[in-house]
Write a structure and sequence with these properties.
Elements lengths: L1 E7 L3 H16 L4 E7 L13 E4 L7 H4 L8 E3 L2 H4 L4 H12 L6
Parallel strand pairs: 1-2, 1-3, 3-4
Helix pairs in contact: 1-4
């Protein structure tokens, strides 16, 4: 199980994106747990095992300070075409590609 933390400015859009992606996690048999929060509450995730931190495009200027949240977990910005359309399927594929050498298209 991979733990992925989605972060946006207010937590609303990242939560919506998590909900949008939920059905596709099952479709792709992805062993991924998605969590969402806003930039101000990221410290509550310091003690959790995070495998990947995804930042909303409008919050990407926080990238350096958020790198400490995931510890050794990579910090990536959610692609605009995924975030802007709240495309849950593309989000799941993007995450799966971060953990695999094989591309999911």
């Amino acid at each position: 199980m991979k733990n992925v933390l989605l972060i946006c400015e207010s937590g609303i859009s990242s939560d919506f994106l998590v909900k949008s992606a939920s059905r596709f996690l099952e479709t792709y048999h992805a062993s991924i747990k998605l969590m969402s929060t806003n930039v101000d509450n990221t410290d509550t995730y310091l003690d959790k095992a995070i495998d990947l931190v995804l930042i909303a495009p409008q919050a990407s200027y926080h990238e350096k300070e958020l790198e400490m949240i995931g510890g050794k977990a990579p910090v990536k910005t959610i692609p605009d075409d995924v975030y802007g359309w709240a495309n849950g399927e593309k989000l799941v594929k993007f995450i799966m590609n971060q953990f695999s050498l094989a591309k999911v298209i």
